[in-house]
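Protein 1 of 2
SEQ + STRUCT:
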Amino acid sequence: MYVKLFVGNLAWSVDDATLEAFFQDYGDVRSARVINDRETGRSRGFGFVEMEVADVATVISQTNGRPINGREIRVNEAEDKGSRGPRSGGDRGGFGGRRY
């Protein structure tokens, strides 16, 4: 099963390679990316891992709370961009409209 995981509470020193190496023991990692601030280039403290796994619940339970570079990470299945709730797009009630 293909899954995308959200990994939070990352130490500033964690990079893409470190994140990938950590998750390699739990499945076939397709990509691992630490998100950086556009202006400073510094890590924002979270990232995403895309991987092929047999059971996502097992991977989450085995990795959530484990330390990487001294900080206990938080691991959840990532949400689709379109499923963030009523303000995620679609009906933009109250925003814009016709201008005369």
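Protein 2 of 2
SEQ + STRUCT:
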Amino acid sequence: MTLWSAPEAAAATGGAATVDWSATGVSIDTRTLRPGDLFVALKAARDGHEFVAQALEKGAAAALVSRVPEGVAEDAPLLIVDDVLGGLEALGSAARARTRARVVAITGSVGKTSTKEMLRAVLSDQGRTHASVASYNNHWGVPLTLARMPEDTEYAVIEIGMSNPGEIAPLAKMARPHVAMITTVAAAHLEAFESIEGIAVEKASILDGLEHGGTAVLNNDCSTAAILQAKAHDVKRRDIGFGEHGFDFKLKSVDLQRDTTVVLAEAHEAPLLFKIGAVGRHYAMNGLGALAAAEALGADLALAAQSLGRWSPYEGRGAREVIALDAVEADMTLELIDDSYNANPTSMAAALSVLAAAEVTHDIGRVSKGRRIAFLGDMKELGPDGPAMHAELARLESMEAIDKLHCIGPLMKHLHAALPVEKQGLWTETSEDMAAQVPRRLDSGDVVLVKGSLSMKLARVVDAIRKMGHPVDKGEDPQK
């Protein structure tokens, strides 16, 4: 199905099409480009114009450019605009204007990607749903997500992030959501903000994009909840609160089971029971907020709660998998919790509480006692208080149940020094150095968490753990 025709794209961007063409998708990367995509020649580490010829060879329908690239024929299928990023933004705005979809935008210091995926899952069961890919939530990710949205979309889920002040409001105004959700406000990106209150003000600016009659879904449990509520009042939008102190969606109890979180809540004072295919109190909060947002969009709450029970996190975001360590002895396994994509003090505390609650298995490995083990990398962008924030992790209540912590990076050296000697594992400068040590540090029966900021490349540690054996398929019983 055609997503953009040459005349439509030219009208949206004010550009000029060299020939007639039609595109079925939009791409910014030749490595993932599909035949029929409109290739957008953005300038990042390298100028996208360098890859236009390659994109056309791979079957791109056309390329969005600001000039005819070297080595590309004058009559090649191009859409020439003054500025490529501006052209992408214009496409995104036009896609949003032509659809009748109900749109939800999500931001927050922690949990926005997981919550976005929860909403994708529950809304997909109730209508044609379009959502951000991965964490495409920045100045090019939001317009790209919008530009990819089919006209007949019924629900759209747009993730909006930030690193510096003033980034969220323009993206929210582009997305024009009917519902805007703030998962929580926590100490993240403190290098760019003077305080957590400053972060709250920036997060709250997502409400500037709300459509007339729109709804704000706000975390009532975070310390800056009053700032979020005041913003909703200022922009004259209805707000729905969720959490233990939620006004409308109230969290009553959370039961953490082996691989499931069971949540008892109230929605407008009526009982609401749901489960999530992942373990963690933070998943309960995100799920409750997702259900509040789904209802605010007009979705059926009971059906949404059922759908949520089939959701589970994906790789790098808290996904759990069993690794078989022996090809013959089926019970020789360990459990991996892969949360290696990102980290800040709040999400780190949540992940460590999940590890602390995990069930280990005794008497199946070289070490008779199953252990809870963490590989933790630096949490970046915390400013001058970063070293102290790392050291303070040692005082978390969950640390009591964790047997050994291996630390990676100069900031995590502060946690390593603050740990009791019996809990101190290795400290290395890089994930590559730690990955080489992994096989000697783990055994059957262990549960192991890997978490840190993306730039720390803890995926290398995750890969090293997987290479100790092979992942057990979800349908496979390691005991049979």
